[in-house]
Amino acid sequence: MKILFIPAGSQATIFSFVPLAMAARNAGHEVFMTATEDLVPAVVSVGLPAYPVSSLPFNYFIGKDRAGQPVEIPREPAAQMRAIGAGFARMGAVTLDALIELAQDWRPDLIVGGPISYAAPLLAAYLDVPFLVQAYDINDMNSGSDPGALEELQPELNRLKLDRIPDPVAFLDVCPPSLRPEGATPTEQMRWIPGNKQRRLERWMYTRGERRRVCVTLGNRVGLAHDIDFVRRLAEDVSALDVEVVIPVPESSEAELHEALGDEVRVGWIPLDVVAPTCSLIVHHGGGVTGMTAMNAGVPQLILPVVAYSTLSARRIAAFGAADVLLPGEATPENIVRSSRQLLSTPSYSDRSAQLSKEIAALPGPAELVAVLERVAAGTYRAPA
C-alpha cells in the first residue's frame, strides 16, 4: 500500500517519523514523506522520497498570519498553546493544495501525521482515506493546541463540510509507561528510536573521558544571535562544575561559538543520539525530541523550557525524578549551577532516568507497529480497550 507521512514541519519531527516510515518501507509498502523545501535534504538523507509542500519554513507560519502580518505569541500558557496551534494550522492550510496535487498522481491508502500536523486530517478527509497519529514526545493529543487550530482552520473545514478537525483512527504513543497520565486513553505503545542528522564519527563522541560529560543543547534552533549568546553563557555556567562540556549546534553556528568558548568546550554538529549515552547530564531547551533522546539513553536532564508546550512534558519528567526544571525567570547562572550540581551528585536522578530507558526499550519496536498501519488502512483496526 501507499503511505504518506506528514511531519509537523521541523527537522526533529522528520527524524521522529523515520523509524516507522523505514519499517513500513522495509515491509514492502510505498512510502513518501512531506517536508518544507528547506528540510527536503533531511528526508532524502535517510533514503526516503521527499515531497516538497512549501517554500516557507514552519516557523514562518508560527510568526505570521495568512496575510503575512506578524503574530504576537502570548506568554500566558493556555493562550500560547492556542497561538501555536493556530500557527501549525496555518501551515496545514497553506500546504493542503500541494498535498492534493500529489494525491492526484499518487493517492495514499493511509496518512500518518503528528499531533500538530493539521494537514494530515484535512487531506484524509478530502481523500476519504484513514489517518493515524504518531507522537513525537511524551505529550498526547490533548496538549491545548487544537482550539487555536480549530479557529484558524474554519475556511478549510467549511470547504470540506466538516464541523471539527477529524480524529485519527489510531494514536501511536512513545511515552514511557511510568510517565503516562493516570486515566489516559489506551493507545498503541511504540518504542522510541532516536534519530538526527549524522556525520563522520570521532572516537571522543562515543567514549567517556576522565571527567563527567555535560551536553548543552538547544536542538536545531540555535542560529539567532540571542540563541548563540544563551548557549555561550549556559556553557560557561556549567563549566564551573569541573565537567567536560559538549555543545551540539548546526554548522552555521559552530565558528561563532567556538571563538567565544575556546578549545575547552567541544562545539559543532555532534549527533545527539551518539553522544547522549556518554553524558552524565543533558541541559536543554525542553524540546520533546531532545527529551526523548535523553530518556532513551538513561541520562538525567536539566530542562529550561522556552514555550508552554515544553513545560508540560518537562514537569512530568521532573515529577518522576529524572529531571529538574527551571522556568525562564528561574534560569539564572546561580540556579543553573546549583541544579546541575544536584543532578550530577544525587544518584536517584540517574536511577530514575535508567528506569525510563528500560521502559522505552521494552516497548514494541516500529517494525511491530507496521501491522497496526495495515489494519488501519484495511479498515479492520480495533483500538485497545
From TrEMBL:
Q: Which domain of life is it from?
A: Bacteria
Q: MF terms per GO, please?
A: hexosyltransferase activity; UDP-glycosyltransferase activity
Signal sequence span per UniProt? 1-23
Q: Which UniProt keywords apply?
A: Glycosyltransferase, Signal, Transferase
Coiled coil ranges: none
A GO biological process held by the record: antibiotic biosynthetic process
Gene3D superfamilies referenced in this protein's UniProt entry, alphabetically: Glycogen Phosphorylase B
Regions that span the bilayer? none
Q: Which SUPFAM superfamilies match?
A: UDP-Glycosyltransferase/glycogen phosphorylase (SSF53756)
Q: Does the keyword Signal apply?
A: yes
Q: Which residues form the Erythromycin biosynthesis protein CIII-like N-terminal domain?
A: 23-219
Which intervals hold domain Erythromycin biosynthesis protein CIII-like C-terminal? 234-374
Pfam families given in the database record: EryCIII-like_C (PF06722), EryCIII-like_N (PF21036)
Which family does the entry's similarity section mention?
Belongs to the glycosyltransferase 28 family.
Q: What is this protein called?
A: Uncharacterized protein
